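Bug #77: duplicate submission created two jobs. Keeping one. Sequence:
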Amino acid sequence: MNDALEPLLGVLVVIQILEYTFTISEDEVDTLEEKLLLFETVKFCFVRVDRKVFLKLYLSGGEEPPDFLGSRLVEVKSLKPGDWLEKAEEFQQPFELVDGVIVDPTDSIKERDGIVLKISPGLAFGTGRHVTTKMAARLLCRVIEPGMHVLDLGCGTGILAILAARLGAGRVVAVDNDPLAVQKALEEVEKNRVDVNVILSDAFDKVEGIYDVIVSNMYAEILLEIVEEAKNFLYNGGYLILSGILKEKFPAIVNVAQAYDYELIENLGDGEWCAMLLKSV
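Kept job's structure:
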């Protein structure tokens, strides 16, 4: 077995694993993730299919799903140890975040011509595989120049803040309102040996200073609020990168951005998700 898999799998690879599938709403993802992370042995992930969101929960045969998931169970599937190992290994494999940037959960790739980000393995806390993170990273690579000041709002694991630091940003601040996310981001920052200030804050509440770039990968409803307040933290001519936007909500965010004197520089799309690069004018 790959040694990097052991923290993730534990004893689960030698016993029967049950895959529970629950149907949930998009608005519940953050709350459920926070609750499930309190259960150290529970492995889980969120899957989006045809505009529906499902929670996949992996438990040993003797364990029961937490009571707060209620009656939203749609399927229970028994996985053989080999099936579970294959599924877990999918989350362990290095992958390309954007051109020239590799995310390596195994901490085994040596940097040569590109950037390697070391993000811990796990089925929780997105590590850059989702298209919204990839689009945000692509736009970061588009605008960051050495010495810039960058704010990652809603940082999660801190992957975008770490990328900004590796791209040469001079000052990087990563913010999240979830203490578990802040703890995780601190761990990843230390592992990647970058200078990123990680703080616990509800949006801009504890943010200080002015920035060249603000990046936020969150839901459209939150991004609408960020568009207005970000003007107070951006240099004139600074960039605002927004990702996590469903296609049908893209026009609403563009309209609000234009009302607050942002210029739409670039927009990206992948499936039902969009991202945009705005410039403060």
